[in-house]
Amino acid sequence: MSTSAHDRTARERWVRGGIWLAVAVVLLVLPTQFPEFRVEQFCSWMALAVAACGLNVLTGYNGQISVGHGALYGVGAYTTAILITKAGWPMLAAAVAAAVVCFVVGVVIGLPALRIKGLYLALVTLAVATLFPLVIEQFPGLTGGSNGLAITSPRLYRGVVRDKPIVFEPAFGLAGDQWKYYLFLAATVVCFLLARNLVHSRMGRSLVAIRDNETAAEVSGVPVATVKILTFGISSALAGVGGAIFALNNARVNPSSFTIVVSIYLLVAVVTGGAASIVGPAIGAVLFGVFTDVVSPSLPARYQPATPVILGVLLIVLMLTAPGGIVGIAQSLRTRATARRLRSSSEGTTGPATAA
Amino acid sequence: MSLLSVRGLRAGYGLVEVLFGIDLEVDEGELVVVLGSNGAGKTTTLRAVSGMIEAQGEILFDGQRMNGKRPDQFLAAGIAHVPQGRGTITDLTVEENLRIGAWTRKDGEVAADIDRWYETFPRLGERREQLAGSMSGGEQQMLAIARAFMSRPRLLLLDEPSLGLAPLVTAEVVDRLRSVTAETGAAVLLVEQNADLALGFAGRAYVLEAGTIALSGAAADLKGDEQVRRAYLGF
Amino acid sequence: MNNFLQVLVVGIGDGAVYAMLGLGLVVIYRSTGLLNFAQGELAMFSTFITWTIWEVGVPLPLAVLGGMVGGFLVGALLHQVAVRPLGDPHLRPLATVIVTIGLFLAVNGAAQLIWGTLDKDFPKLFGEGQITLGGVAIAWQKIGAVLVLALMVLGFWFLFQRTKIGLAMRAVASNSESSALVGVPVPRLLMLGWGLAAAVGTVAGVFTAPGLGLGSNLMQLTLIFGFAAITLGGFDSPLGAVVGGMVVGIMTSVLPQYLPIFSKMRLAPAFLLILLVLLFRPQGLFGRKQVERV
To answer: Which whole-number Å values give the CA distances from B123 to A123, B34, B120, B140, in the listed order?
Structure first.
């Protein structure tokens, strides 16, 4: 019995390691196999994945529902764009600043969220998401208004210093888009690792405790208010980093890129991938990206709106049948397979306690 | 033949089983009580007998097999249920509660019936336009009973009417209930923790312990038996 | 002063439309306890149905009735397939939000699939005319909106206070378990509530479309105004929806006159209203149920 359990965990570890290795290889090889426009699309999937990862920390792990993370994504993108274009900041510094600004904004939003919960918090954040593009349009001097803002930096061009759209120069023998891809990949991996460490930490356990039963968490000594506000801040900072990647990738920002629909798509990514699992939002973001950038453009223009219909129906079906999303489905399949293997190997001597 | 006959009743919630094979009978017009402590399965028994939850075993009402039927079919057969915590519809007025109690009736005597209940429970008559939620616990309990009788049941299931009521108020409610049943001829299956009260009301009693019937008999016998009182009834 | 009155009139007309959408939201909140984020999209969809019927030559008032019937059927159907299997919304708030958001996406996309992505011109139900009273021009369309709202309120009052079905709907909203115990068919009444809310939303869409152009994003701003209205009035109060709708309509129309910063952000005061009411008086002006709070 004990040896078979030991074998199982060892085998599982190998399988897991193998899967991760394969994923890493694919991620590294990807930009060398696809044309530039595809690589840029992959970059935009990463932007979405990081923002979804942030939303997941808040909604999946902490149970605070936000339908407004598209706005925070937008704050991150606009902070990056404005700092580079108007203040001449270097890209990396601007991206870090975007995270900090979003953290602060998140904490500010988190304060009323201490009193407003559940469906009502969803309502408030929905209003924030709807309001955001209008606010951007209200201040054209800073944001470029409804025309959007090209992200430029002063550069020497034909002997004169001019504001030119930012580009990623080829470096280390990589084409510009590939170099950009690897930079964003590194940032994405760092964000996901940070989120992973966060949810596995003491604070991560508090997050889940608050989600599952706030009163019980409170009486067990979890500083509920602090944890909830911090979670809002961290989640928003991640959304901000996602927005920064989005802005740097496109070299321009538009209010129309940050409508309520983006907030909804972030939720789609979290829920289809698997809320309250670290890789879930990444899987969801890739799935969403494949849908919008590969499947949808291949349809005749007449039928392209089928994408939101499919995503909407998928969302509902998943919520009603498999709230754990794709990760949840995979886990239950694995549990079932393990249970079957145990049953057949021990010929009925294994009780349900071991199988579970 | 009994009005209600339950054989080998098993029920629970999800994976948790609460009842492990219960047999009980209620005759036409009979007052029966099920006693037991918290968690013994009293409420679950009533919920199974009114079709609110699925149950295994056999539920016969008036010779008709009720298993698998919907709550409104239980109601139509003549079983009315006053749930724990009274279940008055607090945002409706007293009169509206009584009218909704007659939802399944197609006859034209609803208004006359309502007036009759106002006579039986004058306190309700005085408060017919008042919201049920603004009344006292005792008044709400009477309203809940009157509402259940609006469907003209042959069996009333009553879940812990004494819960949260002062002893004097409880005594009044039970008093009224006795006269109402005498008048309508309805049988009552009452579940209670307050054994003293319940044994004074009912003719026959079952003692439920951890999902099985530990004891049954005439109420007077159970009340009188010193050993039973100490072991099961705690008074 | 005249200018103020003029803006006030516009605000009341807008407010009537917010109140209509708000009434639908209240019906759903009262019966199923959920905030329906897809309500605006349902209204948009049935406004398209109205447009289609009108396009083939049916007079507009009849087309609106047809659109309401269509909206009723769509709303009832969506409740049966997507919302009913959820169970109690307050026990599973995330799932509830996700399902209504999924409906939002699906209905929006479906409208684009069926009617294309170009905005359609939509006629005014009460024509282009206006009357002038003391120097203030009042469009018939605005007067019509207020009259239709009054009719709707009357209709709802009659349904809920004077009919057996309405009584049962109120009973279900208050205590669905006890209602089931007296034999009320709870799921069917909830379905009816969704259908009614969608039918009412049709009218809100019909009044919104002439100004904005009928497109798939028709109701996204109106939805927030509608939510602001019922947040202020109280999520479970039809009277609150009407009063709240008027306040929101007047506020978003008058404020930009004096504070130009709100001219493009008419939504901002509505947002602030939602936030402040939820923070300091979550039951709103006329609501009774306690909104979840720490």
So the answer is: 44, 29, 9, 10
Q: Provide mean pLDDT across the span C47-63.
A: 96
Q: Is C177 on the interface with B (CB under 8 A)?
A: yes
The CA distance from B115 to B96, in Å, is 13
State whether C175 and B101 contact (CB < 8 Å): no
Residue ranges making up the domain that contains B228: 4-233
Question: Within this chain, do residues A335 and A272 fall inside the same structural domain, yes or no?
Answer: no
Please give the residue of chain C at the shortest CA–CA distance from B157: C181
Mutation site, C42, C84, C97, C273, interface A, largest A CB count within 10 A = C97
Residue A356 and residue A270 share a domain: no
- Shortest alpha-carbon distance between residue C111 and chain A (Å): 9
> Whole domain around residue A340: which residue ranges?
324-356
ipTM of the complex: 0.90
Task: State yes or no: pLDDT of A156 exceeds 50.
Answer: yes
* Nearest to C69, CA basis, from C203, C176, C165: C203
Contacts of C64 (CB under 8 A, 6+ apart): C50, C125, C202, C203, C206
- For A127, the closest of C264, C274, C291 (CB atoms) is C274
Would C267 be classed as within a structural domain? no
Give me the sheet containing B31-35, strands edge to edge.
B79-82, B155-159, B187-192, B31-35, B204-209, B212-218
Total count of domains within chain A: 2
Interatomic CA distance for residues A150 and C201, integer angstroms? 40
When pLDDT is cut at 50, 70 and 90, the band that residue A352 belongs to is very low
What average pLDDT does chain A have? 87
Q: Quick check: C85 contacting A, CB < 8 Å?
A: yes
Indicate the pLDDT class of residue A347, thresholds 50, 70 and 90: low
Quick one: A242 and A331 in the same domain?
Answer: no
Q: Is residue A10 part of a domain?
A: no
**Higher-confidence position of A347 and A317:** A317
The span from the CA of B35 to the CA of C127, in Å, is 72
Contact residues, chain A, for C48 at CB < 8 Å:
none
What are the tokens at A356? 């579970």
Q: How confident is the model at residue A349 (pLDDT cuts 50, 70, 90)?
A: very low
**pLDDT value of position A356:** 34
Closest by CA to B65, choosing from B142, B20, B120, B7, is B7
A343 domain residue, yes or no: yes
Chain A nearest CA to C185, separation (Å): 23
CB contact under 8 A, C293 and A116: yes
Question: Which range of residues forms the domain containing residue C118?
Answer: 2-218
Lowest average pLDDT, out of C81-90, C115-124, C170-179, goes to C81-90
Interface of B with C in 14-73 (CB under 8 A): 50, 52, 71-72
